[in-house]
Amino acid sequence: MFRHDAGRVAGPPAWAYALLFAASQLIGHWSVQTFDGVAVWLSNGILAAALLQLHRRQAVAVLVACFTINLASNIVRGDPGVLLWLNALMNMGEAMLAAVLARRFCGAALDMRRPRRLLAFGLFSALPAVAVTAVFGFSIFMTMRDYPAEVWAFRIYSFTAMELLGLFLVTPVLLLIARAHRFEGLRKVSPFETASLFGLMIAVTVAVFWQETAPLLFITFLPMLLISMRLSPTRTAAALIVFSALSGVATLTGHGPVQLTRLSGLAELQAVSPIVQRLGVYNLFMLALVVTVLPVSTVMTERRRLEARLRARTLAAQDARRQAEDAAGARARFLAMMSHEMRTPLNGVAGFADILAARPGLDAEAVRQARQIRESSDGLLMLVEDILDFARSDDALALEPVDLAALTHEAALPSRACSEARGLSLVVENRLPQHARFVADRRGLRQALHQLIANAVKFTETGGVRVVLTPAAEGVSIKVIDTGCGIRREALAGLFEAFAQGDASIRRNHSGAGLGLALASRHARRMGGMIEVDSRPGEGATFTLALPLASAPDAPELMGQRTDEALPAHDRAPRVLVVDDHPVNREVARVLLESFGCEVSEVTDGQEAVEAVELDPYDLVLMDVRMPRMDGLEATRRIRSGPRGTDLAIVAMTADAMPEDVARCLAVGMNGHMAKPVNQFALFDVVQRALAGELPRAVVAEAA
């Protein structure tokens, strides 16, 4: 029944409850003496609120004080012996029972803002407490007085309505006032609006209850409902108290619509005074008003609270989204910058290693060492790509028609040099229908195949690797079959986990960070597919990439074949323009291209590239992106808008290798993208396709 000693004390101090109880007793005594009736019995509601709000010691002190005050009031009123004690005991018992039930059914916080708790207080606390008190009290009263059954029924009804109205009006009001701090942060109502609503309520109440000509009780609901929907429950409770004071005084003094009520046909009620009869009707009206207005006020407050919480959470979510977008943008910029800065020096290392290995006159040991440099740079590049790809997380799919056979050859290209250097065969077997295209994410599929093929080559010492493309019941099946060392059964379970190693001991024979198969599995899942493994130690391994790819009827449009007048392949060397601000990159590209028999020109930025294309005809332009004065993207736009830019092949040769970089290059009108570091095979393939007119046709985006 009492508040826990560790709980926070809210509301008035203990002595204030005792004073309120004494004042309610005086008002009740005066009302009985003056009008022979009481409109609303406030004492029990005040005492119940005190028991719920105060700690045990203070609550017991208030209970004793209120019992003493009640006895003194009964003595002054002249109650005979039994009634002197019975009245006080009924009041104390009703308040204590209401407090116990409220503590049990309304929650420890006694938060009457919540409609459910206010309803629980009325149904499971106030109503049972009044009912038990009425049964107990009237079972004794009936032995002392001899009234007709109808009179007893009316008196029980009047007592129940008066007591229930007192509990339901006073206790929740005091609890709401004590917890007024809980309404802070909700929508503020201006003092002018509050005063206007109270003024309207007072005017309507006075107009209705200080006349006896028309039954206009229903009109008083309108301003009270307006107050309940606009103001907090605390102010709504204050409005109910003001309303009950004005209407109660008017009813007791013989004014108002209640005076027009006639209980005709009940001659047995002649023993009941007219004022008590009218108060029975008034109490019923007030009870209906309270049980309507207070719940509406709590519902509207709960709605405003939820709206405020929703606004706060929406703002927090928007702020979190902005922070996430900023973090994602910063991460993307960091990854792009790291990719660019790491690839640029690797291009010089790998390129000059190829040049040294191809230089005539070198002994076998020098060639082997140059190839070791190349393989080491390839290993470092693969590690960088794997780490950056793993850090990018799962990007959205970019679906497009893809030639799987061509894409597989492209994915196998980085591993071909390593396989040939080690004497391994690397074969792609295309068993798909001729010219078949499928809708897939080109980058994701290429990365998955690249990782599977590179993994197979790394773990194969003799024999070779076969990549077999076959149609499946639902899409395509791509098998990567090697003749390597195989995989132990216990290592299969964690094979596709990041940083997992088939042999994680310090005695392992193969290097790597353990990201390749994890990335391949991630890309397969993104495309709705899966990777299955069949392997035994010493018998090689077969990785099956199953993808549910739909067929694409339209093949990519190729550049038109050049005529002999445009490219006299047998009369002159192909002319290639290398555009790069880094002298090492230009030298690597020049030496490699000249080894293919190309005539090479070099410029250092986009502005010089535009001028060079306007002066001389070229078969291919290898364009860097990040350059001073004019970048490669703007240079490509200007070349495409010029007279010689329609059929000229322009391929990005840049360290900007992220997917968005590739898309940006293609959007401005480039025919392809080649990421640094460049190797002989990739460069030769691009030159060969450019001269054969097999590069995709340039498409300039609208925004470009």
Walk me through this protein's architecture.
This protein is of the alpha/beta class and 704 residues long. It has 20 helices and 13 strands. Helices cover 57% and strands 10% of the residues. Strand 6 (530-535) and strand 7 (541-547) form a beta hairpin. The radius of gyration is 46 Å and the shape is elongated. The two termini are 76 Å apart.
Q: Order of strands in the sheet with the most strands?
A: 2-4-5-7-6
What is the approximate shape?
elongated
- What class do helices, strands and sheet pairing give? alpha/beta
Determine the number of helices (DSSP H or I, runs of at least 4 residues): 20
How helical, in percent, are the residues? 55-70%
Short description:
This protein has 704 residues and is α/β, with parallel strands linked by helices. It is built from 20 helices and 13 strands. Strand 9, helix 16 (583-595) and strand 10 form a beta-alpha-beta unit.
List the helices and strands and how they pair.
Layout: H1 14-35, H2 43-53, H3 56-77, H4 81-105, H5 115-141, H6 149-178, H7 191-209, H8 221-230, H9 233-252, H10 274-358, H11 364-391, E1 399-402, H12 404-421, E2 425-430, E3 438-441, H13 442-458, E4 464-472, E5 475-482, H14 489-492, H15 516-526, E6 530-535, E7 541-547, E8 550-551, E9 575-579, H16 583-595, E10 599-603, H17 606-615, E11 620-623, H18 632-641, E12 649-654, H19 659-667, E13 672-675, H20 680-691
Parallel strand pairs: 2-4, 9-10, 9-11, 11-12, 12-13
Antiparallel strand pairs: 1-3, 3-8, 4-5, 5-7, 6-7
Question: Any descriptors?
Answer:
single chain, 704 residues, alpha/beta, five-stranded mixed beta sheet, five-stranded parallel beta sheet, 20 helices, 57% helix, 10% strand
